[in-house]
Amino acid sequence: MDMKQYALELDQHLRTDTFPLGIKIIQSPADLPAKVKRPLRDMHVPVTICQGISMARRYGWTVAMGAEDLSCPIAATAFGFEPVLPAYADGTLACGMYTDSLATGQLTELDVPKLSREESGYVVVGPLGRLDFEPDTVLVYGNSAQIMRLVAGALYKRGGSIPSTFSARADCADIVIKTVQTGEPQVILPCYGDRLFGQTQDNEMAFTIPYARMAELSAGLQGTHKGGIRYPIPHFLRYEAQFPPTYEALKQQFQALREQEQAHDQEQGS
């Protein structure tokens, strides 16, 4: 199955508000897609990774971000464009905002997934159904029910659960780097920066899965659909509504009238 078909299936089963995306690290500028958008070159402004992701999923653009395109120093460090300097590693950036001390800030920074300088390259992200290259990772933003639907599909052939970690920080590294490093799908809690700069909404979460497992996810979405796990979530409506006493009294009056009519009809018939 090709990427366009996968995108159609995701739309059929999820109906997300924004495009499902494909993501790949491309190291040579010569290998970048011909129609790719470069933030600094084409928009004359550096951006955050989460801004680029939002452009792709909301505008339908394919966006490539290299070192010169990034405004976020945390992303520049995590994606291997800049070295891990002491001012980053010692917890200074996290302390006072995310943690109560340098020591706990160090733990937070240490936990951010990172690429080495040799592994770094252009972060290319675009709508899955429009890509002209095979991505490493598929990314979907949706509400919690849509993400639940993806989790159910991903587990259809494996069972168990999907382990995910949450830090409220640097979700771009979780999305792009961690998924490749672990080879596993994960649920992503959008971080503060994603909400502030990427304008991710309060009702949104994200889900990533290696592209190599898309055939398995496809089978899982189809299998769980047949099993009754669907989106939109159906509402159970086969119950009798309860009404205020005044409403119930009116219903009793209706019943009394019907009984009077039945008695009258019987008298007329006899």
Fold and architecture overview:
- The termini are far apart.
- This protein is 43% helix and 11% strand.
- Helix 1 packs parallel to helix 10 and helix 7 crosses helix 10.
- The chain has 2 domains: 3-227, no CATH class; 244-270.
- With 270 residues, it is an alpha+beta fold.
- The protein contains 11 helices and 6 strands.
- A 6-stranded antiparallel β-sheet has the order 2-3-1-4-6-5.
- The protein has helices at residues 3-14, 39-43, 49-59, 73-78, 86-89, 102-110, 144-155, 171-182, 192-196, 214-227, 245-269; strands at 21-26, 63-65, 122-127, 137-142, 186-188, 205-210.
What is the number of independent domains?
2
- For the report, how would you describe the main beta sheet? 6 strands, antiparallel
Query: Given the C-alpha coordinates, what overall shape results?
Result: elongated
| Beta content | 5-15%
What is the helical fraction, as a range of percent?
40-55%
Mean pLDDT: 95
Poorly predicted ranges: none
> What is the total tally of β strands?
6
Q: What Rg, in angstroms, do the CA atoms define?
A: 26 Å
Through-space gap between termini:
75 Å
Structure in a nutshell:
The protein has 270 residues and is an alpha+beta fold.
Keywords, please?
single chain, 270 residues, alpha+beta, 2 domains, 11 helices, 43% helix
Question: What are the SSEs and their pairings?
Answer:
Layout: H1 3-14, E1 21-26, H2 39-43, H3 49-59, E2 63-65, H4 73-78, H5 86-89, H6 102-110, E3 122-127, E4 137-142, H7 144-155, H8 171-182, E5 186-188, H9 192-196, E6 205-210, H10 214-227, H11 245-269
Antiparallel strand pairs: 1-3, 1-4, 2-3, 4-6, 5-6
Helix pairs in contact: 1-10, 7-10
